[in-house]
Amino acid sequence: xxxxxxSRNVILTDDAVLAIISAAYAVSREFGLLxxxxxxxxxxxxxxxxxxxxxxxxxxxxxxxxxxTARKGRGRKRIERRPVPIPINLAMVLKQAGASRPSKAPLLxxxxxxxxxxxxxxxxxxxxxxxxxLDPTEVTIYALRHSSIVRQLLANTPxxxxxxxxxxxxxxxxxxxxxxxxxxxxxxxxxALLDTIRTAxx
Length: 202
Prior knowledge:
three-stranded antiparallel sheet, disordered N terminus, 10 helices
């Protein structure tokens, strides 16, 4: 992940993420939807740009997106699709957005109907971050990905599951987010500590 171990590895509170999503919708409905899906799934823009209408499985009780894997690493890589859970309310919004398009059409598109490309989000995201009262020189769209990963870790989601959902590796998760894993492991292990006070009293 670019900048994962640099100063831009910014972790946002849920309130800050929600403020950015709201500000992104003020830029445009299409951009707001892109930012919301980024925040919920933690996916890369390159993955979201390849989402097709047919990748939305919104009629299930456990709504999900069949997220394309990223084209990262050396050589040609086969693109697979893996299920990523989403809230039912987001599934309904996505279903409405793709209602008039064929199943192979892009699920997320710019206001002019074109695909989102890697750098298209930068200027509108800066506007959204500024509108949300945050520093656009510190908070990039990757902060939504980092925050999604940490949110999952703090919810005690197994690291391998977090890695799969975010199309990365357990090694990368442990290397990049070890501080948050350590903080969380302390809270989890503390519940299993032996209470010796009764022995001391007796």
